[in-house]
Write a structure and sequence with these properties.
Elements lengths: L4 H16 L4 H8 L3 H9 L6 H10 L10
């Protein structure tokens, strides 16, 4: 879990943002040009997204993703 912790934290936060905006998975998918099933797999942790995908999701949710390397 220590290795996957940050990934799950990111997923939880993005789902939380989507729900706060009262946006369905289908609406988010349409906004970023993908299918609802892709959003479902992503939110379930069954898909390892690219940074580009994450950026599209963040933009659609009017939020930012910050990546740091230390």
């Amino acid at each position: 879990y220590a290795v996957l912790g940050p990934e799950y934290a990111l997923l939880r936060k993005l789902v939380e943002k989507r729900l706060q905006r009262r946006m369905t998975q289908a609406a988010l998918a349409k906004k970023i040009g993908t299918r609802q099933s892709a959003i479902s797999r992503f939110e379930a942790g069954n898909y390892h997204p690219t940074l580009i995908f994450l950026q599209k999701v963040a933009d659609a949710l009017d939020t930012k993703i910050k990546v740091t390397i230390s």
